[in-house]
Task: structure prediction
Amino acid sequence: MDDLDKLKQRISSMVAELKQDYGDLRVKANLAKLEARDELKDMEKKLNKLEAKAKQLGGATAEASKDIGAAAKLLGEEIREGLKNIAKRF
Result:
């Protein structure tokens, strides 16, 4: 086998390997996108709960407002962390 044939074979092998890597990565990217979409839906539900808690604060007593406020703060931190985790994927 001469040098040109060896070169063609190496390049052909490299192309096949790169196509395989590309295909694998494309599948992983699509799965990550689906997972991120599901997580965003969860964050949307939590955000809606947080908005509801914020509305509850308006009509709550001073004592109840502390509990609602603490729950809202915790939920807000959870949402913020979830959004950061999703953003890291992109």
User: Anything to note?
Assistant: The chain has two helices and no strands. Residues 6 and 34 are 42 Å apart (CA to CA). The chain has one domain: 3-88. Residues 3-59 form the longest helix (57 residues).
